[in-house]
Specification:
24 helices, Glycosyltransferase
Length: about 550
């Protein structure tokens, strides 16, 4: 059955539209529910064929094939359809992992299996790569001819912990070789494109929806591709696209009804589609449509608060706003200046909308935990403004800690839990409130990445609250030395995050995945020191076009 796509070639003219027209485009985009139903029916027909491949019995080679298939499902964006089967397979195979690897000498196979097991929380030792190390402690030069093996080893190297020294060597080895391949121009075009994408952002840090869209295009060019898997992946992504646009329409209509744009000062960012996109970075599966709308509303609120504190409100204004938020009552709204009053009313409305939406789904909502986190977030913004204006001078470490809260790390995880309903229990909220090492590391990473990106702009605007600035002052070093020091910290933090994801067992794996997805969000927003959330062109525009505008041919 061939399902016709709603997006025709004329829609591609959107590429030429300006940022201000995005909202109009999505509000007017036609969605045919019968198309959604037709795609869903075909997906349901094809899924059992894949499930049969996962459930087949056999020897170690069959088990290896299953693990390789799991990686393919992850790359094509299909793994969430088969989570139970995948968990069972990996649990079984990991118990006999030494027999499974044996004397396996295929670099791709070893690298893919390593990635899959660690992705699902199984701490497979990086010693499996020592079979490819020569007497000189370096990876064997003979591996250079294995392009796909090098590509998969590069991906595996990004799952290293503080103890995986062999992966440090793997990263240097593969990075250098992949860059040489690009410079040499000897690879097939679809492989060249995949290498370029992974060097910009490896799968470990990339948004799952983007990984799927890019890998579908790559996989289609592979001569040995499985036609059933390719068809299922295309249908699945088309279904996601339609879900995403329906969500955007819902969110944009809510925003239009607020009628706030004319009331905002010129310094305020109108990041509507971007606010939704940040929610997509936290979860891409269709069952979390409601969660992405919640995320979009919360992201919009946080963006407005950030702009108000950084560029518009005075310290007394922010102090009064913090007081109202901490009391969480409309009674004190008359004490606020006009813009503060609108912001506080928006906060009340957003929380009310979120609670109403979750209650309608019959889910419990731990409003107390999330509200308390929101109060901490708003107060941290006050601290940053005081530091920015020189009223107080914190230590580098204090800035990173408080700045990580202001970056919305903890609040973002909280609202992502709300959007998952009963999938996540109260222990997840309590875990975040306990400030575990994993989340503190994510907060520090976000603060450092953001401040490296914004340093020049902050300094030119007289905004002293920047990690690079405090590092320079505290350790008496140059700007370049401070940036290098913070970049080294980020490298070590990445390893700590990987380590914590493997050893944290007090919460479900899906909760840990949300923490990992927040890391993906950071990488997407700040990689290559490019703050895409604040730039409507460039990578962010490319992402929106790739995910929402360009049709996928079925």
């Amino acid at each position: 059955m061939e399902v016709q796509t709603t997006v025709d070639n004329e829609s591609l003219a959107f590429k030429k539209l300006s940022h201000s027209q995005w909202t109009d485009y999505f509000v007017s985009f036609p969605i045919d529910d019968s198309e959604l139903d037709a795609i869903t029916r075909e997906i349901d027909i094809l899924k059992p064929e894949v499930r049969e491949l996962l459930s087949s019995q056999g020897d170690n080679e069959t088990s290896k094939s299953k693990v390789l298939l799991i990686q393919l499902l992850l790359s094509l964006g299909l793994a969430f359809h088969f989570e139970n089967e995948i968990e069972n397979i990996l649990e079984d195979v990991f118990q006999r992992i030494e027999d499974m690897f044996g004397d396996e000498r295929d670099l791709s196979t070893v690298s893919i299996m390593f990635c899959v097991f660690r992705t699902y929380g199984h701490n497979l030792s990086s010693n499996v790569f020592k079979r490819f190390i020569g007497d000189d402690g370096k990876f064997e030069k003979s591996l250079i001819g294995d392009t796909k093996g090098i590509m998969n080893l590069y991906e595996a190297a990004h799952l290293g912990t503080t103890k995986d020294y062999v992966l440090d060597e793997a990263l240097k080895f593969t990075s250098n070789h992949l860059k040489s391949l690009l410079a040499g121009g000897t690879c097939q075009p679809h492989i060249t494109k995949l290498i370029r994408n992974m060097l910009y952002l490896p799968q470990r840090w990339n948004m799952e929806a983007l990984i799927a869209r890019e890998y579908i295009s790559f996989y289609e060019q592979e001569k040995d591709h499985d036609k059933t898997l390719l068809r299922l992946a295309k249908l699945n992504f088309k279904l996601l696209q339609l879900h995403y646009i329906k969500e955007l329409k819902t969110f944009i209509k809510w925003w239009i009804e607020l009628d706030l744009t004319s009331k905002w000062p010129s310094q305020f960012r109108e990041r509507i589609v971007e606010a939704w996109l940040a929610g997509l970075m936290m979860y891409y599966e269709p069952q979390f449509s409601g969660g992405r709308v919640i995320a979009a509303k919360f992201n919009y609120l946080l963006t407005i608060i950030d702009d108000a504190c950084d560029h518009y409100l005075t310290i007394p204004d922010i102090t009064r706003l913090v007081g109202c938020v901490e009391r969480w009552s409309p009674d004190g709204i008359d004490t606020l200046q006009d813009i503060s009053r609108i912001i506080f009313k928006l906060a009340l409305d957003v929380f009310e909308d979120i609670e109403r939406g979750v209650r309608s789904e019959g889910c419990s909502y731990h409003s107390k935990e999330m509200l308390e986190e929101f109060k901490i977030l708003v107060r941290s913004n006050l601290d940053l403004v005081k530091w920015a204006q020189g009223e107080e001078v914190p230590s580098f470490e204090e800035h990173v800690e408080v700045g990580g809260i202001a970056l919305t790390t903890y609040a973002t995880l909280m609202y992502s839990f709300v959007g998952m309903g009963e999938t996540v229990g109260k222990e997840a909220y309590e875990w975040v409130r306990s400030r575990p090492s994993l989340i503190k590391s994510l907060a520090a990473k976000g603060r450092l990445m953001d401040d490296i990106t914004d340093f020049e702009n902050d300094m030119s605007n007289g905004f002293a609250a920047n990690a690079i600035n405090y590092y320079m002052k505290q350790f008496v070093v140059t700007k370049e030395e401070a940036i290098l020091g913070c970049e080294r910290m980020i490298v070590n933090i990445n390893k700590t995050i990987n380590e914590e994801l493997l050893k944290t067992t007090c919460v479900p794996r899906r909760v840990l995945k949300q923490a990992h997805n927040f890391e993906r969000l950071l990488e997407l927003l700040y990689t290559k020191s490019d703050d895409i959330y604040n730039c409507s062109e460039g990578k962010l525009k490319d992402y929106i076009i790739t995910l929402l505008i360009d049709p996928i041919r079925l």
